Structures
1.
Amino acid sequence: MPAEKYHKAYLEEQFPVTLQEHLRADGLDPTHLPTYEYLNTKGFETRGLSQAIQRHFGVEMTLHQFLRQHGFGHQGDGDWPTTHEETINHLNGYRASRRDRNDDADDTISTMETAMREALRVLQDLHGTDNLLLFARYETEASGRTGMRRSWLCSIHSKPTSQVVLLRITPAI
């Protein structure tokens, strides 16, 4: 789609609706924050979209910020798709650590949260549990004492984007 198509009314009214239709058709949550690859695959030219959004809504506005303002992506702080308290505590701790130690930007934190939520949903679908820590425990007490940790990489291929999410969980002793 050429950049001329992305006029202000289209961006505000039609683009979010059309994107939700694509997400539904692909079996995804209609509020899922799509990747640039997904948008390009669906015929939305992300360079043109980004330029039009900056032209109509300010040079500081990114495509993902625009989408979040229109209901895509996670909208609240601290709402994880799990009721397992220990998992929630570790996820919140990881998020706080990223903010404090890495000084990550809000967009980076949001992207990380989206990936972690997707990992939780896939684990729930595949294994029927929302206890993420079940997959990150030491084999034995002795292995924990000797420093031999069993950490898991959770690789999630979410079709049709072929996006891979890697989540490493290393439990404390």
2.
Amino acid sequence: MEQTNNILKKKSDLIVLLKLIIYILIVCLLCIFTCGIYKIESTSMYPTLDDNNYIFVEKLSKHIKYDYDDIVIFDNDAETYIKRIVALQGDDVEVYSNKVLVNGYVVDRKVNTYDINYHYSSTVPTNSIFIMGDNRTHSIDSRYFGSIDKSNVIGKLLFYIKGNK
């Protein structure tokens, strides 16, 4: 009788262990497909994000909606970038004299300024977004490669952790 109880206890422990392993696998798979961790290796988003910061990105919102000021991570020409959304599809964008205008209104942000001799003007195409880095002087963004298609977006910034310099 005691031996039977020990066998039942071991089976019960094994079932609990298997359930725990399954739950851990499910959580890991959800994290892999819904979140991502990336290391910032540039100063293009300074002062918001700095070199060596770690960012946590959620990947579900890319299937929902984007808004002005969202910080997104995306692929473009085999490179991965992180930038801020400045304009959405259908918006008219003009960049000149240290100003960014969207639909005729100045976008006022605390960002590092850029070359005053630069001039860019465009309308954001359907299913696209216009993105810029906060450190305008040191950012390769939509001013150089145009608006990006929403399908290239990996996800939106959730939060970040400061890394070592």
